[in-house]
Amino acid sequence: MKAVVLKADLLRTLIVGSRSILAKANLPILSNILLSAGGSKLEVVTTNLETAVKASTECRVDSEGKVTVPGKVFLEYVSQLPDGDITLEKLGEEAVVSTKGYSARFATLPTEEFPAIPKISGGKVVGVDGQKFVDSVTKVSFAAAQDESRPILSGVLCEFQKKGLVMVATDGYRLSYDETAVEANEGLAGLGMVIPAKAVAEASKIIGEAGGGGGKVSIVIADNLSQVNLKIGDVEFTSRLIEGEFPAWQKIIPTNFGSRAIASKQDFINVVRTASIFARESGSIVKLKLESGKNGQGNLGLSAATAQVGSGDAQIAVQLEGKGGEIAFNFRYLLEALSVINSDEVVFEMNESLNPGKITSVDPKDKFFHIVMPVRLQG
Q1: CA–CA separation, 63 vs 68, rounded Å?
Q2: pTM (2 decimals)?
Q3: Contact 35/42 with Cβ under 8 angstroms?
Q4: d(CA 186, CA 311)
Q5: Domains of the chain by start residue, with CATH
Q6: For a 10 Å CB count at each end of the chain, is N or C smaller?
Q7: Alpha helices in the chain (DSSP H)
């Protein structure tokens, strides 16, 4: 194998491909990158057995072939090289990288040991705008469970409906929902799949790095719902799907709310952050209090107290409909939900202190909403 490629093209491809490298793996081959030169392309493949990334770039191929190299070290080395042409060559059991004034040799592992990346034959295909897909993933994936005691909750439900692609994630304490339009949706209505949240988050980063801001993502779903492939340009991302039935999430969403407040997003974030200083040592709990005023005006107060630290409270002006009330939440859930809303103002809705609260954008075109389960306060 021998190929000549521009440093900028090689580095960009390696950065995208490195998303599925395992730095510490039980199988040493999973820490390696598979480089394949053929035709006029250099292809980079990585896998951790859960996900796989395949990316390619133009190059001059003097001799076709394949080689595996230590992924993280190879990426680090290439990133330090000067701009210009880089020659990649396999000599014996080593891979040689050379450019003006620089040369390095990397140990290799047999290409036969590199796991085969499963291909989806047939399957259902749908297109979606790259940036909209990335936005939806950002608004939803953080709400999935971090542990895998209930594997289904560690994933993001992607469900095709007549209106488009719906994404839902929940860890049992909060729930995020968003939807986006898709292309060629005929025959897909009612089809659902659960992608591991970590995988779909990595996919969104790859799409962004691959130019997702203006590109289209092609989603291919295996007929047996075992895996999904996302492709944009010269980059492909493959992930397994989580088996099982996603919880009936619609049942936890209140049909109506007794109080509705419109607040500045930044002001809301500021008062949550100040209250969080006193909440960190007491279960991360902050108390919200909505109080009505005159002419539709009101106040949203945030407070927290810890015996070892002290207490703090702050309030902001809001537009309020309803009688208001008190409710308590984990402050981290509030901050994470507020951080993904794009509008300058947000809507907070609640009923009684033991009923879920709801956070949305003030923009009616934005379909995102976040449901947060309250914390019971002693006394």
Answers
A1: 16
A2: 0.90
A3: yes
A4: 56
A5: 2-113 (3.10.150.10), 124-249 (3.10.150.10), 253-372 (3.10.150.10)
A6: C
A7: 7-17, 71-80, 130-140, 197-209, 265-279, 331-339
Q: How many CB atoms lie within 10 A of CB 8?
A: 12
List, in order, residues 6 or more apart from 26 with CB less than 8 Å away. none
99 token code pair: 């450019």
The set of residues, in sequence order, having a beta carbon less than 8 Å from that of 354 and lying 6+ positions away, is 374, 376
Distance CA 162, CA 60 (A): 46
Q: Which residues contact 114 (CB under 8 A, 6 or more apart)?
A: 29, 32, 34, 45, 47, 68
Distance CA 225, CA 90 (A): 39
Report the chain's C-alpha Rg in angstroms. 25
DSSP tag of 128: E
Other CB atoms within 10 Å distance of the CB of residue 356: 21
CA 368 – CA 379 distance, rounded (Å): 34
Please state the length of the chain. Answer: 379
Query: Which of 57, 58, 54 lies closest to 236, judged by CA?
Result: 54
Question: Do 7 and 82 form a contact (C-beta atoms < 8 A)?
Answer: yes
Tell me the mean pLDDT per 10 residues along the chain, length 379: 97 90 84 96 94 95 97 96 97 96 96 90 85 94 92 95 89 95 74 94 86 76 90 92 93 92 97 94 91 88 90 94 94 96 96 95 94 84
DSSP annotation of 245: P
Which residues touch 10 (CB under 8 Å, ≥6 apart)? 42, 57, 59, 78, 86, 88
Greatest alpha-carbon pair distance for the chain in Å reads 82
Name which of 366, 43, 58, 47 is nearest 202 in CA terms.
47
So what's the pLDDT on residue 283?
A: 87
CA–CA gap between residue 137 and residue 130 (Å, rounded)? 11
Residue type (1 letter), 208: G
* Residue 119 bridge partners (DSSP): none
Angle at which helices 197-209 and 7-17 pack, to 10 degrees?
Answer: 160
